[in-house]
Structures
1.
Amino acid sequence: SQQGEEDPQALSIQEGENATMNCSYKTSINNLQWYRQNSGRGLVHLILIRSNEREKHSGRLRVTLDTSKKSSSLLITASRAADTASYFCATEYPGGSYIPTFGRGTSLIVHP
Amino acid sequence: NAGVTQTPKFQVLKTGQSMTLQCAQDMNHEYMSWYRQDPGMGLRLIHYSVGAGITDQGEVPNGYNVSRSTTEDFPLRLLSAAPSQTSVYFCASSRDGGQSYEQYFGPGTRLTVT
């Protein structure tokens, strides 16, 4: 399987702390996306970063991409209880169908 | 816009029964896909379509059929349900632009096969 792998599988922090999740993949990619899934709901797109980009920001979210290490990280600053969710990375590969492949996710719990 | 809609939200089937999970989008997206989500497995791609009349297999296609007669609809058919198909099924769509764009997901269908 070409899916990315998130690390850690689970993360528990206090409100106000920063949360960092990582995604590693095996072969060259066109782009990498991060999604959030609240319990029992569909996935919601957060950020897409293309292979020629190194960093993107969206509000309290910061995504980095290191193609030499084949890894990406998602940083959530000043976490809130509402950030409690599972976070997935999704990778899209050259010569593919433009349909991304999802990892297994990181489960984040933010305690109030 | 309603976005991506899926019906039903919940379904219980007996082994051997067949059924169709419905998916529709009103965003005029060319790309549509079906994923299944199992605990600890993330989302796995079942089938996808890059436009009306065009479908292809994903990672786990066995036991499922799809068709895409219109841009809006992408139904998933379970031919003969098995307990291994107990899962949560998500439909997603994205626009075509010669590259990958964000996926819009439906709310999911929780299927139990007994």
Note: The CA atoms of residues 40 and 105 of chain B lie 19 Å apart.
2.
Amino acid sequence: NAGVTQTPKFRILKIGQSMTLQCTQDMNHNYMYWYRQDPGMGLKLIYYSVGAGITDKGEVPNGYNVSRSTTEDFPLRLELAAPSQTSVYFCASSYSQGPQETQYFGPGTRLLVL
Amino acid sequence: AQTVTQSQPEMSVQEAETVTLSCTYDTSESDYYLFWYKQPPSRQMILVIRQEAYKQQNATENRFSVNFQKAAKSFSLKISDSQLGDAAMYFCAYRIFLQGGSEKLVFGKGTKLTVNP
């Protein structure tokens, strides 16, 4: 049971390039999330999904897109990368929203846009 | 607005001593959940402890405990018998529920904890 895995660990992009951050969980969780963490700050929600085929915007969705074709995978797409998207990106998952549930985080992807 | 405030950007503690990290939050809801997450240099977010607002008893997980003051909207983390492995960024978070049945964690800016040998 690997939990939540993310690839790549680190990536440098040039302004205007595109890339996809991969996220996979093997816990059969319905809910998945993408966060970004800027230096010295807490996490902010980009997008989330309550199940395969269902996604919705979080707090800071501009410049990103997501899809959820399977329960396990929740990729985050960056189109036309900008320096403001330099950040650490965390994927998380949870089984449901019950009182005992919590979110399990992946190790993060560090992205540098130059 | 849902906010979480951690007023201590950095803290330090001697190994084997006790340290308390502060957190206050702002909410109009009566039922919610609070969390402390640890982020070591590996950057992975690790759940340390959680507290349900409807429970008066403070949560405890081994050397970690909280002081939950609901009226004051305060949720501090106490680490007893500090160990070198406790050195990390600690984030206080508040959980709210979104439309569609999902949830969102609102995070504070974090407190960097240094453990001195």
Note: Chain A has no helices and eleven strands.
3.
Amino acid sequence: KQEVTQIPAALSVPEGENLVLNCSFTDSAIYNLQWFRQDPGKGLTSLLLIQSSQREQTSGRLNASLDKSSGRSTLYIAASQPGDSATYLCAETSGYSTLTFGKGTMLLVSP
Amino acid sequence: DGGITQSPKYLFRKEGQNVTLSCEQNLNHDAMYWYRQDPGQGLRLIYYSQIVNDFQKGDIAEGYSVSREKKESFPLTVTSAQKNPTAFYLCASSIPSGVLLNTGELFFGEGSRLTVL
């Protein structure tokens, strides 16, 4: 059974810092890896999706990388803002459309 | 606007009652999913469906049932057999990742919070 681990479980930074969230997975036959954002009491919003043939994806201040050989993905957030405060989840797809989720990293950006 | 609509947002149930959570999507996606989210445990897959009139059990299907009579709709029934139903339930949809050139990107609804009294 695939496992996805996210480190750290929680992170608190001052506004303006650059930060990295980590995601590791055990399945070498990964199809894609997706990063989500979840605000309290809300659903998940897709941030970035990296297909297995890609090494990174960028959207605004966000950059996600994928290293299949080491089983790791990172989400880099540049110039963090208080509005970035949320829980960030990664999920990998290996089989036919079912995703395995990590437990998330809770991020707090203080003004 | 295209998206996934879950209802109700909040639901209270007495022990021994069955309740049904609604999930409707107008994204023309073939695949739909139900996840359960508990504090500290992440998201766990309950059921999923790749096409109409077909669905498969996920990791924690016991005490739940689903139907997929229409492409747009994938309701989840939480039965009295579910021992600990209090949780946040999330519905999602995607084009199945096995489809050529599809990324398999998953889109979520806003969730339904079920509380057993």
Note: Chain A is about 0% helix and 60% strand.
